[in-house]
User: Fold this.
Amino acid sequence: MVHDEELILRLQRGDEWAFQLLVRRFRKKIYSVAYGITLDREESQDIVQEVFLQAYRNIVGFRGDASLSTWLHRITVNRCLNWKRRWARRFKWMHVSTDSNDDDAPAAEIESPLPNPEERVADAQTRQQIDNALKMLPEQIRTVFVLRELEGLSYEEIADVTGIKLGTVRSRLFHARKRLKEILQPRVKEEL
Amino acid sequence: MTHVQSNSCDDALLIRYLDGDLGPDEKKGIEDHLQRCETCRRQLAFFSDFSQDFRNHVQRETDRVDFTPLEKEVINKALRQRYYKRGPSSLFASLKFAVPAAAVACLLLFFSYTRFAVDPVPTAPSAIINSFTGSMSSVMIFETPETRQTILWYNEEPDAESEHHAS
Assistant:
């Protein structure tokens, strides 16, 4: 097991094997964050590539002020927000349906290892609901929410990764959940 | 440190409780409140369920991705990037040795070729076919395997003046 410190040193020396290890170690983590923010498979894969290439280019200047993981998260978040800006200009999300009707969901969405077809549909509907609800959150708020929920980062770590104040992290997380509750109100009522 | 009124509902504190962002006193206060407030308990359960669903959803999406080709592509791009990053200076640095080496190789090749590969001029035997010698000129005809040569030369009469000088 190569620790992050050693991995960084090897990367800074240009060790090709170390880069391979870096990619293997963090690829899923980065993809998860990218997918959570962009909610787009292909873009998330592109972002994963961009993050690693940027890390490879800039590793020499990495001084260890933050952990390797935090540093990669920072790059990922920046890339994702750039992605959103890029695509916002092309009005891509204007074409994404935001109602919870699942009739137009692609067939792949229903693919699931669940044996029961009813459960499959319910599961696909839940996922669609989640996607739709998250898409309605402003990108900055969604980013903070994703870092908290997927990566389990503390408020301080989120502030570090995103470069915002601790109070802003608190207020964004509060607004994220409040907004999600409003969006998913029918589901809340069902559960209540 | 904020002390929680255990009989009041506070969404902000509830969310911070969910995220583990409360100090011990606040945590105790909200836990006391939760024991008595069903609305907040349901609220908390809703947020927890949504978080769990979201994590499962992303996990499933992540599991569907085949990272092997992606990894290969990233590594290839990184290596290409490293090559280009070195830039023309490294190219010229390598040329510094390559050009003289190529010149030496060319010279060696040239000399080897002229020395060993190119056939020398054939030195086949020749034969005198005929020759004549007269008072004024002589003729000699000879042959090589590939040519027939005729050599003709004249006999000069020494003039009187030169004979006079000679004597």
The mean pLDDT of chain B is 80. Residues 37 and 130 of chain B are 139 Å apart (CA to CA).
